């Protein structure tokens, strides 16, 4: 009989195991720990962000705020510093490791009780059913993550466990993912490979960052963040990232495409879509100038997303109304849910790792009593 069994050897499960130190077991269905850690942040693991607020997340603000009151970005950075895990602050206030192996090696050294390559079949009271037999524990922590990145071994077992306990699962959707396009935006695909700074608005949210056109539609950091807030309907793109279109059209004897701070290939394609000939600015009609305003305010409704296979995270999950401040199930007080399996999803920039560690720490506060 273990004090605690943790299901999942991702960031949240490994961190909790490291905090608990003794009489715990981590059960993981993959053949190695932290597969998602390995590829995050381009292999450098963007661990957290200097700016941290519930506003950076899709989920219940009150629940998220209470969690960060127990363990926030400063607490995480202090933890890393105490353990000689050096991080670097890069653009947009993100903190990275030199390599994700820095964090993985720390966990490999300090988290010893891990049973790999073991399928989790379900839970019966204080008993875990697996492909390698039954295991008993006083407390069980579900840290199995979401269903995105299936090639990294993503599984829906955490949601099944929650449902069997009577929990409601908020609808699962791909998030931090690119958009596919409808027929009207097929021209996006002709621009595959082109990237530049833009401003994306979706509802009350706005993201200024790079967009990237692809053979499937449109992606890039600004689009990935927008996908977190998008359900259905239109989004708005300012291709000039806040700079007024007519600010650049001051020289009447210059061609439109030579005056805009955008890739010429994009400008020419977009002008064609607008039905405006690329000509000297002095020859523009009033009607054509009106059309050019769409460089600052182009609306389109995505057809959908690139799906869970390309999504960095899963939006939705276990309803946090049914979870207490220590991540315990309100229906089964010996069962805890942490990390991505919960209905809390962060923007790009280290926010999802921060949530993994913060939610694990909240569970630790109760489990260590």
UniProtKB/TrEMBL annotation:
Taxonomy, superkingdom: Bacteria
| Gene3D superfamilies, A to Z | FAD/NAD(P)-binding domain (3.50.50.60), HI0933 insert domain-like (1.10.8.260), Translation factors (2.40.30.10)
Please give the cofactor(s) recorded in the UniProt entry for this protein: FAD
**Pfam families referenced in this protein's UniProt entry, alphabetically:** HI0933_like, HI0933_like_1st
Q: Which SUPFAM superfamilies match?
A: FAD/NAD(P)-binding domain, HI0933 insert domain-like
The RsdA/BaiN/AoA(So)-like Rossmann fold-like domain, residue ranges: 3-363
Q: Keywords of this protein's UniProt record, alphabetized?
A: FAD, Flavoprotein
Location of the RsdA/BaiN/AoA(So)-like insert domain: 173-313
Q: Which InterPro entries match?
A: BaiN-like, BaiN-like_dom_sf, FAD/NAD-bd_sf, RsdA/BaiN/AoA(So)-like_dom, RsdA/BaiN/AoA(So)_Rossmann
Q: Does the keyword Flavoprotein apply?
A: yes
Q: Which PANTHER family match?
A: OS12G0638800 PROTEIN
Mind telling me what this protein is named?
Aminoacetone oxidase family FAD-binding enzyme
- Organism expressing this protein natively: Caminibacter mediatlanticus TB-2
């Amino acid at each position: 009989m273990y004090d605690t069994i943790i299901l999942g050897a991702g960031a949240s499960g490994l961190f909790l195991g490291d905090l608990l130190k003794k009489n715990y077991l981590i059960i993981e269905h993959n053949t190695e720990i932290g597969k998602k850690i390995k590829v995050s942040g381009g292999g450098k693991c963007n661990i957290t962000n200097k700016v941290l607020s519930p506003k950076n997340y899709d989920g219940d603000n009150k629940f998220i705020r209470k969690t960060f009151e127990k363990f926030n970005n400063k607490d995480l950075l202090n933890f890393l510093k105490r353990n000689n895990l050096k991080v670097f602050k890069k653009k947009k206030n993100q903190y990275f490791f030199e390599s994700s192996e820095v964090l993985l090696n720390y966990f490999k050294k300090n988290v010893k009780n891990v049973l790999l390559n073991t399928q989790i079949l379900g839970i019966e009271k204080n008993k875990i059913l697996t492909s390698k037999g039954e295991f008993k524990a006083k407390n069980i922590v579900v840290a199995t993550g979401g269903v995105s990145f299936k090639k990294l071994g993503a599984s829906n077992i955490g949601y099944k466990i929650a449902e069997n306990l009577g929990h409601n699962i908020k609808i699962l959707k791909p998030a931090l993912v690119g958009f596919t396009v409808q027929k009207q935006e097929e021209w996006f695909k002709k621009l595959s490979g082109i990237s530049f700074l833009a401003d994306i608005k979706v509802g009350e949210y706005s993201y200024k960052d790079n967009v990237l056109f692809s053979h499937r539609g449109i992606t890039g950091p600004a689009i990935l963040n927008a996908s977190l807030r998008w359900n259905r309907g239109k989004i708005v793109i300012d291709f000039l990232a806040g700079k007024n279109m007519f600010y650049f059209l001051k020289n009447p004897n210059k061609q439109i495409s030579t005056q805009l701070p955008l890739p010429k290939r994009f400008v020419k394609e977009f002008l064609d879509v607008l039905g405006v000939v690329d000509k000297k600015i002095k020859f523009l009609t009033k009607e054509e100038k009106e059309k050019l305003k769409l460089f600052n305010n182009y609306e389109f409704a995505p057809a959908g997303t690139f799906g869970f296979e390309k999504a960095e995270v899963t939006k939705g999950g276990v309803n946090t109304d049914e979870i207490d401040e220590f991540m315990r199930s309100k229906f089964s007080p010996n069962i805890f849910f942490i990390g991505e399996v919960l209905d809390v999803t962060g923007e790009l920039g280290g926010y999802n790792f921060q949530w993994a560690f913060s939610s694990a720490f909240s569970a630790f506060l109760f489990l260590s009593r």
